[in-house]
Write a structure and sequence with these properties.
The structure is a single chain. The protein has three helices and three strands; from the N terminus they run βαβαβα. By secondary structure, the chain is of the alpha/beta class. Strands 2-1-3 form a three-stranded parallel β-sheet, covered by helices on one side. Strand 1, helix 1 and strand 2 form a beta-alpha-beta unit. The model has no long low-confidence stretch (mean pLDDT 78).
């Protein structure tokens, strides 16, 4: 079993992630990059609400792209005020890959 660390946030916090501090080997996920937009998923998000939880297959592909598998133990964390940390955890629990 591998341990995977995911640091998450929104509004393009990649520079903050890269500056650290962060857990060694952590991967960054921006929930807006995989959110259900009206453009891509009109049946899921017809009102084009922001930050909508992605469909299971999109979330699974994002995790696959980061090398995260179902057998990994995942630690999801964010910096001060990151509201997407619990949402990322929810996506992982509610939409297993």
């Amino acid at each position: 079993m591998t341990h995977q660390y995911i640091s998450c946030c929104f509004l393009n916090y990649i520079p903050r992630f890269e500056e650290g501090p962060r857990i060694a080997g952590a991967k960054y996920v921006d929930m807006d990059d995989i959110a259900s937009s009206k453009e891509l998923f009109p049946e899921i998000n017809p009102k084009d609400l922001p930050h909508m939880i992605p469909p299971k297959n999109l979330f699974a592909r994002a995790m696959d792209a980061m090398g995260i598998t179902n057998s990994d133990r995942i630690i999801i964390y964010g910096k001060d005020g990151c509201v997407f940390t619990p949402r990322t955890w929810f996506c992982k629990c509610a939409r297993p890959m």
